[in-house]
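Input sequence (112 aa), recorded before submission:
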Amino acid sequence: MAGPFRLGVEPELARVALVYSGVLLSSRDNRGCEMQTMAGAVDRLSNFWLSRIEAISYDSCACHEVTIRPGQWFAGLDDIVDWAFRRAAGGHNGIRFIGGPEGVICNPRWGH
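Predicted structure, token format:
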């Protein structure tokens, strides 16, 4: 089957992606609301924080993943991303960071 980010014929592997403010955003289920939430979180980040983030993968049924650019981890980045998602969507189901210190995650949080 043809199409970007589609591997084989298994629908769970379909993924839509776009670059927004220099960050690759991807949604597992091609949900417009997930893309809007990621864009809203990105809009809340200053350039200082935003420049450190390479990609965000959103899955409304699982933990989100934030990929950090090589060598760009900075203390407090996890707290800022957590805050941005809480402001953009009222919360999240957890955030896992890739490319930072081992094991950094934000537990699920809902509410401001």
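Checked by second reader. The chain has one domain: 11-110.
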